[in-house]
Write a structure and sequence with these properties.
Blueprint: E1 2-9, E2 12-21, E3 24-30, E4 34-37, H1 43-48, E5 56-59, H2 66-71, E6 76-77, H3 79-82, H4 92-98
Parallel strand pairs: 4-5
Antiparallel strand pairs: 1-2, 2-3, 3-4, 5-6
Length: about 100
């Protein structure tokens, strides 16, 4: 099952995506510039193999819902996210507002 829904933070709207897979659920909240995602996101891959794309993304681990993803501190972030002032430990919703 897949769910798409708008998520309002302050005066901005983001896209929340939930993909239910066998034994796991993928969670993503996307802005126009980047996204935050559950632990399935491979930040090292984005920073190393896809560095030239300057992807803006952050990863939170241990989250099971979009609400938890929004409230969780990011465990790791891409170089592109760092360039916007998004650091490890930034809360998901705060990171999205910087994107």
């Amino acid at each position: 099952m897949m769910e798409l829904r708008p998520i309002q933070i302050e005066d901005r709207t983001f896209l929340g995506v939930v993909v239910k897979l066998p034994k796991t659920t993928l969670l993503v909240v996307s802005s126009e510039l980047g996204y935050i995602m559950c632990g399935a996101l491979d930040v090292a891959l984005l920073n190393e193999k896809l560095k030239d794309r300057n992807i803006i993304a952050g990863r939170a681990v241990g989250v099971k819902t979009l609400e938890q993803l929004l409230d969780a501190p990011l465990e790791s972030v891409t170089f592109g996210a760092e360039s916007l002032g998004i650091e490890k430990g930034t809360i998901g919703r705060e990171a999205l507002l910087k994107m």
